[in-house]
Design a protein that fits this description.
Strand order of the largest sheet: 2-1-3-4-5
Radius of gyration: 19 Å
Shape: globular
Helix content: 25-40%
Strand content: 5-15%
Distance between the termini: 15 Å
Number of strands: 5
């Protein structure tokens, strides 16, 4: 299997300590020989992946001078886009351009974690994500890999907590949640709702085969992981820091995802 990989830190460096570092690609296991050419960059967003001038190596390998007919394209994307969107502060910014509500805008307590989220902002985010995914599909279909399967994974539910990857590198969620005054008791529920909505968006895209032909989504939110403890500052549960999994956590997601990828490719050859 010859795969082209592009993505964020879930495909590259989630921890600065080499002995602790892990990512999904490292932990994949296939029944047959497989190789992935990896173009991923820590902190990358889907928008940067889709802009040819910002990601020339990926574009060249997929549809440029060094292109080949890849058996599949594996993507790790959307997580940093979500983090960036959560980082938008309220001052002078309308609800349709941010994901979180101020305390004065919160809905009734009966809405649960949804009371803190901006539905209008989420719709804007969905439109942004789909437009950039359109660009990835169009790039695939310009070259020798036209129609090749694209594999997209979901994320696991993090705990907003003071657990950076190193000095000045994170945490990524905690500051955004705190800036909007969300109670600590609701941190886990807000994170679960956001990651659940992101997974639902990916599933919606994969189901739209007219717009995104041969796109496959693997829902990692369905896999049980050991959650990090609220307030913990280091490795906890299956997490090495606030948003990155340790090797055990990566293995729990990567092994079944690899099996799903291999099945799609093998079935397509039958």
């Amino acid at each position: 299997l010859r795969l082209l990989a592009e993505g964020d830190s879930w495909f590259t460096i989630g921890a600065l300590n080499p002995l602790k570092n892990a990512n999904l690609l490292f932990e994949m296991r296939f029944a047959q020989t497989a190789v992935a050419v990896n173009c991923a960059t820590p902190g990358d967003t889907l928008k940067r992946m889709a802009e040819l001038s910002r990601d020339p190596v990926f574009a060249d390998l997929l549809a440029g001078k060094r292109q080949r007919a890849w058996d599949g394209i594996v993507l790790s994307c959307g997580g940093n886009d979500l983090i960036d969107a959560l980082g938008v502060r309220a001052a002078g910014v309308p609800l349709n351009l941010r994901l979180l509500r101020t305390a004065a805008e919160w809905g009734p307590a009966g809405e649960g974690a949804a009371r803190y989220l901006s539905d209008a902002g989420w719709q804007t985010f969905c439109g942004y994500f789909k437009a950039n995914l359109d660009a990835i599909v169009a790039l695939r279909d310009k070259g020798a890999s036209r129609g090749a399967p694209i594999f997209l994974h979901g994320y696991a539910v993090p705990m907003p907590r003071p657990a950076p990857a190193g000095p000045g590198i994170g945490p990524w969620l905690l500051s955004s949640i705190q800036a909007y005054g969300i109670p600590e008791a609701d941190y886990a529920a807000v994170a679960a709702l956001l990651i659940g909505r992101l997974a639902a968006l990916f599933a919606e895209c994969a189901a739209d085969q007219a717009r995104y032909p041969n796109l496959h989504f693997f829902d990692t939110t369905r896999i049980a992981l050991a959650a990090a403890a609220l307030g913990s500052a280091g490795e906890s549960g299956d997490w090495i820091n606030e948003i990155h999994l340790n090797r055990a956590g990566c293995g729990k997601l990567a092994v079944p995802w690899a099996a799903a990828i291999e099945k799609v490719i093998v079935d397509s050859r039958a």
